[in-house]
Amino acid sequence: MSEMSKEELWKLFPIIIREHDPHWSQNFEREKSFLEQLVSSLTPVDIHHIGSTAVPGLKAKPTVDILMEIADETDLERFRDLLTSNGYIFCSKPENPPPSMMFMKGYTEKGFADDVYHLHVRYRGDWDELYFRDFLLSHPGVAGEYEELKLELQKRYEYDRDAYTEGKTEFIRRYTLQARKELETVRR
Q1: Over the stretch 76-113, which tens digit does the pLDDT of each residue have?
Q2: Into how many domains does the chain fold?
Q3: Which of 51, 89, 140, 178 has its C-alpha lying 20 to 30 A from 38's C-alpha?
Q4: Pairwise CA distance, residues 73 & 95, whole Å
Q5: CB atoms closer than 10 angstroms to residue 94
Q6: Euclidean distance between CA atoms 76 and 72, whole angstroms
């Protein structure tokens, strides 16, 4: 797969949106336990279920997104080697916050496996993904708007992951900012 172009990969791994599956939260819990055991001797971690699969009732790509927060002093090379030797594919993400790492699991030469994961690795911090998830959980109307947007984008960009993601960006930014403002008001 490493020799394939983006376009070839997008044909093999199109954007698919499905009805919400309660098994996604179970898959997250199972993978969280696996990851905690895997990296516990290397780094303390916090692991969060993020993305649309974390919002009950919301249609989503059947990919469980996980945010793993690691300690600043983590040996990143050992960390990467540990994950890649246990079924994850490393993907450098220089545009993401440090340590600019993402891992994927469930991508095969024949397409998606039954369980697919995106593991976003960050140093401990104050992450937008958690605000956005919590905002969708507490604002079902906005979650419905987000679902409609994703379905529209899926129709237009089924074989273009970059365009699909870019199409969601402004919506996510707007409601993440609103979520941060609401939380700030609650903390006062």
Answers
A1: 999 999 999 999 999 888 888 889 899 999 999 898 99
A2: 1
A3: 51
A4: 21
A5: 6
A6: 9
The predicted model scores a pTM of 0.93
CATH number at residue 73: 3.30.460.10
Strand partners, 120: 67, 102
Q: Where are the alpha helices (DSSP H) in the chain?
A: 6-12, 23-39, 76-84, 128-138, 140-156, 161-187
Give me the domain span that covers residue 59.
Answer: 15-182
The pair phi, psi for residue 47, each rounded to 5°, is -125, 130
Please give the distance of CA 184 from its chain centroid, rounded to a whole number. Answer: 25
User: 152: Cβ–Cβ under 8 A, 6 or more apart, which residues?
Assistant: none
> Does the pLDDT value for residue 69 go beyond 90?
yes
In-domain check, residue 187: no
Whether 27 is covered by a domain: the verdict is: yes
Q: Nearest-CA neighbor of 127 among 183, 61, 186?
A: 183
How far CA 183 is from CA of 3, 13, 143, 173, in Å, comes to: 45, 37, 18, 15
In a domain, 108, yes or no: yes
> Could you give the CA distance from residue 142 to residue 127 in angstroms, rounded to a whole number?
20
